[in-house]
Amino acid sequence: GQNIDQPTEMTATEGAIVQINCTYQTSGFNGLFWYQQHAGEAPTFLSYNVLDGLEEKGRFSSFLSRSKGYSYLLLKELQMKDSASYLCAVMDSNYQLIWGAGTKLIIKP
Amino acid sequence: GAVVSQHPSRVICKSGTSVKIECRSLDFQATTMFWYRQFPKQSLMLMATSNEGSKATYEQGVEKDKFLINHASLTLSTLTVTSAHPEDSSFYICSARALNLAAETQYFGPGTRLLVL
């Protein structure tokens, strides 16, 4: 079966750095996505990785290792507005997105 | 760019009535649109994949006669919840895969919160 695993909840301090991990097992791979979802709102696109390595975009970076079936989202200089759920999703061989359950990130002052 | 709108944003209806939700890609063409449902504190659940000009592909367990999907143009897909019941109350979100942008990326609408009384 297809499976995406990420921690249910994480807590971090304002101004700090946090890494949210995602491991996956899917039938085929056409890229991995990270989305941010604030409570009561739709997800917004953060990043897309299809090749191994680190993609940096401002305070957010995303890393992929296809051989390990592993990705992480790194958030630097955390702000209170970063409190949200972070969804990891993998596009399988049929170009369908397989979604993780999301990681709820709580930022404390 | 890559803006997707949904209408209405919130709807309350009586049990047994039908509700139509519109999903539009505003600044790009979308050959494929997706309809998701999300219950509180749960992840997104794909309901169906909609391709312009053809019948939608429904996920297992989703009743195609209850959730009618029409993808009439490259910028509009509609989801009609027929004979809605309280258990259909949920957050319905559409997304669109851009034809002329990064083809793999899905852009989400703001969602429609449906409450069936």
Structure keywords:
heterodimer, A: 109 residues, mainly beta, 6-stranded mixed sheet, 5-stranded antiparallel sheet, 0% helix, B: 117 residues, 7-stranded mixed sheet, 4-stranded antiparallel sheet, globular
Please summarize what this structure is.
The complex is a heterodimer of chains A (109) and B (117). Chain A is an all-beta fold and 109 residues long.
Report on the architecture of this protein:
By secondary structure, chain A is an all-beta fold. Chain A is built from no helices and eleven strands. Chain A is globular. In chain B, strands 2, 4, 5, 6, 9, 10 and 11 form a seven-stranded mixed beta sheet that branches. In chain B, strands 1-3-8-7 form a four-stranded antiparallel beta sheet, with no helix packed on it. In chain B, a hairpin with a 6-residue loop joins β4 (30-38) and β5 (45-51). The interface between A and B is medium-sized, with 21 and 18 residues.
Helical segment tally of chain A? Answer: 0
Straight-line N-to-C gap of chain B: 37 Å
Strand content of chain A: over 45%
Main sheet overview of chain A: 6 strands, mixed
Task: Tell me the radius of gyration of chain A.
Answer: 13 Å
What is the share of helical residues of chain B?
A: under 10%
Mean pLDDT across every amino acid position of chain B: 89
Question: Biggest interface: chains and residue counts?
Answer: A-B, 21 and 18 residues
Structural class of chain A: mainly beta
* Total count of strands of chain B: 11
Report low-confidence residues of chain B grouped into runs of 5 or more: none
Strand count, sense and closure of the main sheet of chain B? 7 strands, mixed
List the SSEs and their pairings:
The complex is a heterodimer of chains A (109) and B (117).
Chain A lengths: L2 E3 L3 E5 L4 E8 L6 E6 L6 E6 L3 E5 L2 E6 L4 E6 L8 E8 L5 E3 L3 E6 L1
Parallel strand pairs in A: 2-11
Antiparallel strand pairs in A: 1-3, 3-8, 4-5, 4-9, 6-7, 7-8, 9-10, 9-11
Chain B lengths: L3 E4 L2 E4 L5 E7 L4 E9 L6 E7 L5 E2 L8 E7 L2 E6 L8 E9 L7 E3 L3 E5 L1
Parallel strand pairs in B: 2-11
Antiparallel strand pairs in B: 1-3, 3-8, 4-5, 4-9, 5-6, 7-8, 9-10, 9-11
